[in-house]
Specification:
Blueprint lengths: L4 E10 L2 E11 L3 E6 L6 H8 L7 E6 L14 E4 L11 H12 L3 H10 L15 H13 L5 E5 L7 H16 L3 E5 L3 H5 L4 E6 L2 E7 H9 L3 E4 L3 H10 L3 E6 L2 E5 L3 H11 L5 E4 L4 H8 L15
Parallel strand pairs: 3-7, 3-8, 5-6, 6-7
Antiparallel strand pairs: 1-2, 1-4, 8-9, 10-12, 10-13, 11-12
Helix pairs in contact: 2-3, 3-4, 7-10
């Protein structure tokens, strides 16, 4: 079943604080959508409204055209992981999943399937309170996948995972999207989202900042900049600046140049006899693009280095 998450002019206020302000976007099937923004941007509130845990003051959050509370069998439509610690610490991991399956009318065999899928098998008999944070994350993911839902809503799913686990979940997200599911993932680890996300929705102060494909966002953030690696950095910077380029030192032997094409840079350096080991188009990271997007949307900023 192909199912979409759709937010329509969503608004939520807590007292005088506007947490979400006229937010509209769509999470399409077959894609991993990264949901990002600074602390306090309204991400958690938005996800709670999608899942019917908070009611919007205005607008609507719909899954397959319905509000979450109207879904006849929610676990079969939406799998969610908001808080990996929201499990009774005295309940064994497998028993927690069996309880969820029974409540949703799911077969017992599905529990064993998701236990193996998320790599929880060796610790499934342990009590949740004795599990590491990474294993509690895997338990939360098992619960989200239990109903084989076409929609996943995951908040910080890589939290607590070791490097091997992060690589695993990146592949899991890609496979879920490849199956045609709509996957919404909130995370602060931009490097991990870059490896798994197709689309990006950024919010700041409760408002939409960007709704774009990751590919287009990275292309725009990369611009026409060129990276030059040379041991003669000072001489190269002077030469290229005199040729009309905007030049900045971005590493001990690295210069970033804008305003000149790579071919012209190579010609200038070669004519002057300046050695270089690399001249390549700059490719912005998702973190770099994100920081640029949300620069004016951060509610609480750390002081600059050296300031009181």
């Amino acid at each position: 079943m192909s199912t979409t998450i759709e937010l329509r002019d969503l608004r939520k206020r807590y007292g005088r604080t506007v947490a979400v302000d006229g937010l509209s976007f769509t999470v399409a099937p077959g894609e991993v959508t990264a949901f990002v923004g600074p602390n306090g941007a309204g991400k958690s509130t938005t996800m709670r409204m999608i899942l019917g845990l908070d009611a919007p003051d205005e607008g609507a959050a719909l899954v397959g055209g319905q509000q979450y509370r109207s879904l006849p069998s929610p676990l079969r439509v939406v799998g969610a992981l908001l808080d990996a610690g929201a499990v009774h610490p005295g309940r064994r991991a497998r028993d927690h999943l069996l309880w969820m399956a029974r409540a949703a009318g799911l077969p017992r065999g599905r529990v064993e399937e998701v236990v193996e899928l998320v790599g929880l098998g060796p610790v499934a008999g342990r009590r949740a309170g004795a599990l590491s944070l990474g294993m509690r994350q895997r338990l939360g993911l098992a619960g989200a996948l239990l109903g084989d839902p076409p929609v996943l809503v995951l908040d910080e799913p890589v939290n607590g995972l070791d490097p091997q686990g992060i690589v695993w979940i990146r592949g899991l997200l890609r496979s879920l999207a490849a199956d045609g599911r709509a996957v919404l993932v909130s995370s602060h680890l931009m490097s991990e989202l870059e490896g798994s996300a197709d689309h990006l929705v950024a919010i700041g102060r409760g408002r939409l900042v960007a709704d774009t494909s990751v590919r287009d966002l990275l292309a725009a953030a990369s611009g026409d900049r060129v990276v030059v690696r040379t041991a003669q950095r000072t001489e190269a910077m002077t030469l290229l600046a005199n040729a009309g380029a905007t030049v900045s030192a971005t590493g001990r032997e690295v210069v970033t140049v804008s305003g000149l094409p790579a071919e012209r840079i190579v010609a200038l350096l070669s004519q002057r006899g300046l050695a270089f080991s690399e001249v390549a188009a700059h490719r912005a990271s998702l973190e770099e693009a994100y920081m640029e997007l949300t620069r004016d949307a951060v509610e609480f900023e750390a002081p600059a280095t050296g300031e009181a």
